[in-house]
Sequence to fold (227 residues):
Amino acid sequence: MASAGIIDDYVTELSRALRGPRGAKLDLVTEARDSLVDTAEALEGEGLERAEAERIAVAEFGPISEIAPGYQEDLSISAGRRLAALLFVSVPLTALLWSVIWQIFPIDPVDYATKPGWFVPIARSVDILQMFTGVLGGIALLALGRGLRRIRRPRLVTRGLAVFVWAVFPVMLVLCAALVYGSHGPTGFSGYPLGVGVSLVSYGFMLAQLYGATRCLSITRREPVTA
Fold:
């Protein structure tokens, strides 16, 4: 439908100027290209040459320096929604998995009597932190959805959520390591296969959260978007 030329060059520069989730970015760039092509074809139908029609279409669409910031804001919202959804789903799911295996496949009851005094407070702290993180993810997901009309800078919501994930990660790592040590000693879950399996799932979720948070921090950098 469209031929290579001014529009393709413009769209390529626009794509290079944007940072964000691949799918969302592709959708925005494709939408921009389709709009430009439609305008150029309408002008061409009025008797203009193709090159001139594309030039006018690009000029009417606007300079990349003016168009890109708005698109970048949309991409930051998309990235924030993904991270928020991940937290809203994965953190409660992790807590549920641990609760289920402790209830259905508990460790030796004798071990509970030998736990250190700090074990229960730390376990409760982990539960509270997980609950807070899941709730925060739900709030952010709502804010970046229906709440966009009331938020002036959604980029800050995305960035704040990413900073929170990175701040909580070392805390959770230390607390969870303490719980493992308090439950099974230096050997960890080596004699508790279900514990090993759920630990791997938990660490997988944590790595996914860190990756999403890192992407959000990169996407919401303060540097101006330029072509």
